[in-house]
Amino acid sequence: MSLLQRIRRSESLRPQSLLGRTTLTLAFSSFLIAVVSTIALNVFVIDPIAERSADDEAALLVLSAQTWVELPPQARPYFELELAQSHDLIISVAEQTLPPLDRYLPFTELLLEKLQRRLALDVRMYDGNDLVWVDVPMAGYNLQIGFSPDRRDVQLLYVAIVIASLGAGIVFLTSLLIVRKIARPLVQVGKQAETFRGLAEIEPLPETGPRELVSLARNFNTMADEIALVLANRTTLMAGISHDLRTPLTRMRLALALLPDDVEQSLVQRFERNLEAMDVLIGDALRFAQGTREEAQPLALAPYVREVLDTFEQELDFLCVINDDVMLDLAPNAFSRVLTNLVGNAIKYADRVRVSLDGSEVVVSDDGPGIPVSERGRVFQPFYRLEASRNVSTGGSGLGLAVVQQLSAAHGWKIEIGDSPMGGAEFRWRFDVKSK
Question: What domains can be seen in the chain, in order of their start residue?
Answer without folding.
Answer: 19-157 (3.30.450.300), 196-290 (1.10.287.130), 297-430 (3.30.565.10)
